[in-house]
């Protein structure tokens, strides 16, 4: 193992630079150094102008996602030793989003989509605190737990060709969160989320490419969630036809 | 947001895929490998009896129509995925339209038989 590694970072300042250009930084190699720590090293020792996002350093906050050798990954969960043999790696901001600066992607669109699906427990009537907590059995927790592990890192959006093509698609994580709350026994908000799921921009834009599940750092399996959303939406479609046949309102 | 009609196409696609997985191999073996070795008259009567029965008709129609919808759905989305420079409304019409025409043709034939 050589004692340093070449990290090529796509630098970009919108409005000033025409296009992103790669800049090379040589970083001392050690087996336990993460890509995020390498960026911190560059910022502290080599180039204070480098812009990137991070916070927790432990795959919880979801802010350090970047394209590492063309793959969407978390900087804090990816280690330099993986690239030691090749002696180099390439970083750029997450695909499918506008670049704010250097490695910082503008994920506003993703945040909007999250909000669309109302990712919080909705109650039809608020219960007084004196009645105690909302209880749930382990089996009820089990139904949605996997989908609640999402850290909103956006890697699945960088992986999704449909979102890349048309960012009106609500996308993997937002649709997964919709399912997560729909499956929660404490939640009364399913009906309110179905309109978003039922739309072309909802589950139906997905063609089950599945790359989102491959890149997800938390094993959420958004592709599975979206497909279960398709089943739910198909049932909803059938029920709506029945309602229409009975002369009731289209929903 | 507007409700999509994709559940119809996806429902038929899913049903077709399921049916193909279940009876596809059996159909290939029966019609491709076993039938040619069967005694022609006996084979004819067996198939004829199947077609004569309403349940047989239904089964055959399902075995023809659902895989058709499955196939055109794949084709339609595959072309889109490959960024084929085609008018997708027209492609959809041709795909699902041809499956529907063939389904109606099979259904009518089965009905008059
Ligand atoms: S589903 Fe996975 S990849 Fe997508 S935002 Fe959540 S944690 Fe990240
Ligand atoms: S720094 Fe928080 S997820 Fe990587």
The CATH class name of the largest domain in chain A reads: Mainly Alpha
* Text of the CATH class of chain B: Mainly Alpha
Q: Outline the low-pLDDT stretches of chain A.
A: none
Question: How would you classify the helix and strand content of chain A by structural class?
Answer: alpha+beta
CATH topology of the largest domain in chain A: Fumarate Reductase Iron-sulfur Protein, Chain B, domain 2
Task: List the ligand species.
Answer: iron/sulfur cluster, FE2/S2 (inorganic) cluster
Span between N and C termini of chain B?
Answer: 46 Å
Biggest protein-protein interface? A-B, 17 and 12 residues
CATH superfamily of the largest domain in chain A: Alpha-helical ferredoxin
Strand content of chain B: under 5%
Taking the alpha carbons of the first and last residues of chain A, their distance comes to 63 Å
CATH superfamily of chain B: Fumarate reductase/succinate dehydrogenase, transmembrane subunit
Please indicate the percent range of residues of chain A in DSSP E strands (runs of 2 or more): 5-15%
Given as residue ranges, the uncertain stretches of chain B (5+ residues, pLDDT < 50) are none
Protein name (chain A): Succinate dehydrogenase iron-sulfur subunit
Catalytic activity (chain A): a quinone + succinate = fumarate + a quinol
Keywords (chain A): 2Fe-2S, 3Fe-4S, 4Fe-4S, Iron, Iron-sulfur, Metal-binding, Oxidoreductase, Tricarboxylic acid cycle
Cofactor (chain A): [4Fe-4S] cluster; [3Fe-4S] cluster; [2Fe-2S] cluster
């Amino acid at each position: 193992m050589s004692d340093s590694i070449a990290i090529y970072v796509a630098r970009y300042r919108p409005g000033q630079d025409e296009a992103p250009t790669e800049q090379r930084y040589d970083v001392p190699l050690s087996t336990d150094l993460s890509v995020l720590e390498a960026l911190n090293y560059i910022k502290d020792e080599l180039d204070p102008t480098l812009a990137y996002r991070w916070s927790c350093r432990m795959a919880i906050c979801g802010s350090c996602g970047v394209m590492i050798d063309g793959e969407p990954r978390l900087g804090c969960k990816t280690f330099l030793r993986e690239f030691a043999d090749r002696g180099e790696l390439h970083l750029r901001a997450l695909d499918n989003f506008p670049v704010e600066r250097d490695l910082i992607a503008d994920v506003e669109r993703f945040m909007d989509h999250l909000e669309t699906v109302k990712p919080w427990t909705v109650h039809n009537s608020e219960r007084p605190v004196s009645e105690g907590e909302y209880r749930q059995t382990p089996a009820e927790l089990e139904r949605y737990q996997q989908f609640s592990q999402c850290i909103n890192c956006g890697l699945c959006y960088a992986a999704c060709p449909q979102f890349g093509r048309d960012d009106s698609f609500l996308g993997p994580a937002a649709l997964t969160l919709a399912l997560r709350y729909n499956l929660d026994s404490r939640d009364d908000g399913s009906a309110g989320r179905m309109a978003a799921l039922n739309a072309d921009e909802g589950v139906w834009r997905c063609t089950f490419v599945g790359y989102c599940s491959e890149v997800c750092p938390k094993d959420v399996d958004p592709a599975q969630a979206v497909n279960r959303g398709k089943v739910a939406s198909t049932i909803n479609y059938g029920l709506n036809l029945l309602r229409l046949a009975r002369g009731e309102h289209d929903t | 947001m507007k409700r999509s009609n994709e559940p119809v196409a996806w429902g038929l696609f899913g049903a077709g895929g399921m049916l193909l997985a279940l009876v596809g191999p059996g159909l290939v073996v029966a019609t491709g490998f076993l039938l040619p070795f069967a005694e022609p008259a006996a084979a004819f009567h067996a198939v004829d009896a199947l077609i004569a029965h309403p349940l047989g008709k239904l089964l055959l129609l399902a075995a023809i129509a659902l895989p058709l919808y499955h196939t055109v759905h794949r084709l339609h989305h595959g072309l889109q995925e490959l960024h084929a420079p085609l008018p997708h409304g027209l492609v959809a019409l041709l795909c699902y339209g041809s499956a529907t025409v063939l389904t109606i043709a099979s259904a009518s034939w089965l009905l008059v038989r």
